[in-house]
Write a structure and sequence with these properties.
This protein has helices spanning 2-65, 69-82, 87-99, 103-116, 121-133, 137-150, 155-167, 171-178, 189-202, 205-218, 223-235, 239-252, 269-281, 285-298, 304-316, 319-331, 337-349, 353-366, 371-383, 387-400, 405-425. It is an all-alpha fold. Mean pLDDT is 85; it is low at 1-25, 255-264 and 428-437.
Length: 437
């Protein structure tokens, strides 16, 4: 029994140690569990806040797309309170500030979005948009280029990159950027139209026509693009083709005679002017006058159709119609050197040399180096018998334009008449009466 007791006593320290170990283990486990539970709760709360923030952010985006800017800003602030380091939140903040016209704040927000999510092409694209609005073209180009590199199959990024190169006065670089990529975007109209416009800038007529024609083909004959193709053809000197495109568009857009609604495409006054100008270049002034009468009716405040009509009527020999158009322009106080010149010509051909001289003098006052105005002034003076004034006017025209052949011819004719008159009166050219030797 003693041995048993002794054994038990001896066994007590070991038991105490075991209890101690077990007790410590339970305490440490309890602390660890508490810590893990706190972490899990924090993580769960963070996840829940992220979910709630995401919903708020989505709602803010919906408000922005609907134009409810104040509601969008309120929802965004709530979202950012829950997810203060979210790149999408800063991206949306930049969009809102851009919509509000607060470019400085928009740029700050997008800079944070770029820092948080540098591999997102949409973030770089918006950064480019903001920089361009601030006229920081180099930064805009850098961001557009990053977006295009990150998402090479997104045409909008390539388009923006090329467009800003044009704005930076680097059209050839823009064209070199677009040309090899057109095969990757074989159905993209915008890239082809930009290529066509760049070709116009640098004077490449045939490529401009080809790109524009390709865009029209892809767009299944979009009337707006057809008009632009006609404009390119007119610029390239291919007026007959431009007329063939424009005539059916414009004729089809005329309102039905019974006054019912028409499904035809609306034609802008600029399109009418384009066709009229093409007619004039093809020496078809009567056709131009018909189109211009419609433009004058549809665009009461724009005097451009009236100016072009005066030119067309003059070319058609309808001097009364030309004079009426010019009088309308003069009454509006919108005469230019060119319209004064035309008015001088019309007045002279209508047998009103005094009005012609006055109009040519107005043209010279507006544009002193307009050789044709000096010539018309001389021609009107000659009709009135003011030979010295006519001679002086022709000489001024030749000083401005030494190749003005008709002015030189008129001056020679005046000299021949003076010689003939001198010979008929027996007066030498120095004014001394001739005698027999």
């Amino acid at each position: 029994m003693r041995r048993t007791m002794t054994h038990r006593l001896r066994s007590l320290p070991a038991a105490f140690c075991l209890l101690s170990v077990v007790g410590c283990s339970r305490i440490d486990s309890s602390l660890l569990s508490t810590h893990l539970e706190n972490d899990q709760r924090a993580a769960a709360k963070e996840r829940w806040e992220a979910v709630r923030g995401g919903v708020k952010l989505q709602r803010a985006g919906e408000h922005l797309r609907a134009g409810r800017i104040d509601d969008a800003e309120k929802a965004l602030n709530e979202a950012m309170a829950m997810m203060p380091s979210d790149a999408e939140a800063f991206l949306l903040a930049a969009r809102i500030r851009l919509e509000q016209g607060q470019l400085g704040e928009a740029r700050q927000a997008i800079a944070l979005a770029v820092a948080l999510k540098p591999e997102d092409p949409e973030v770089h694209y918006l950064a480019g948009e903001i920089a361009r609005r601030q006229e920081d073209l180099p930064s805009a180009f850098e961001h557009y280029a990053n977006a295009a590199q990150l998402a090479p199959q997104t045409a909008a990024y390539l388009l923006a990159e090329a467009d800003v190169l044009v704005a930076m006065n680097r059209p050839f670089d823009a064209l070199e950027l677009i040309q090899p990529r057109l095969i990757d975007f074989d159905q993209n109209v915008s890239l082809r139209m930009l290529a066509a416009r760049i070709c116009r800038i640098v004077g490449l007529r045939e490529p401009a026509v080809a790109y524009c024609r390709d865009a029209v083909r892809i767009s299944t004959q979009d009337p707006k693009l057809q008009v632009e193709l006609a404009a390119v053809l007119h610029w390239a000197g291919r007026d007959e083709e431009a007329i063939r495109i424009l005539e059916p568009l414009i004729d089809g857009a005329e309102a039905p005679a019974d006054g019912t609604e028409s499904d035809a495409v609306a034609i802008q006054p600029s399109t009418l002017l384009l066709l009229a100008d093409a007619y004039l270049d093809q020496a078809r002034p009567v056709h131009a006058m018909r189109i211009l009468r419609r433009a004058m009716k549809e665009s009461q405040d724009d005097l451009t159709p009236w100016r072009l009509f005066a030119r067309a009527a003059t070319a058609a020999g309808d001097l009364e119609a030309a004079a009426e158009s010019l009088e309308h322009i003069a009454a509006k106080g919108a005469m230019t050197a060119e319209t004064w010149l035309l008015s001088s010509y019309v007045a002279l051909r209508r047998g009103k040399p005094n009005d012609s001289r006055e109009a040519s003098a107005r043209a010279i006052q507006a544009k002193p180096d307009l050789a044709a105005a000096h010539f018309l002034n001389g021609e009107a003076a000659e009709v009135e018998g003011d030979v010295s004034a006519a001679r002086a006017a022709y000489e001024r025209a030749l000083r401005i334009d030494p190749d003005f052949e008709i002015a030189a011819t008129r001056l020679d004719m005046l000299s021949l008449r003076a010689e003939a008159a001198s010979d008929s009166t027996g007066t030498c050219h120095d004014g001394v009466t001739g005698t027999e030797p």
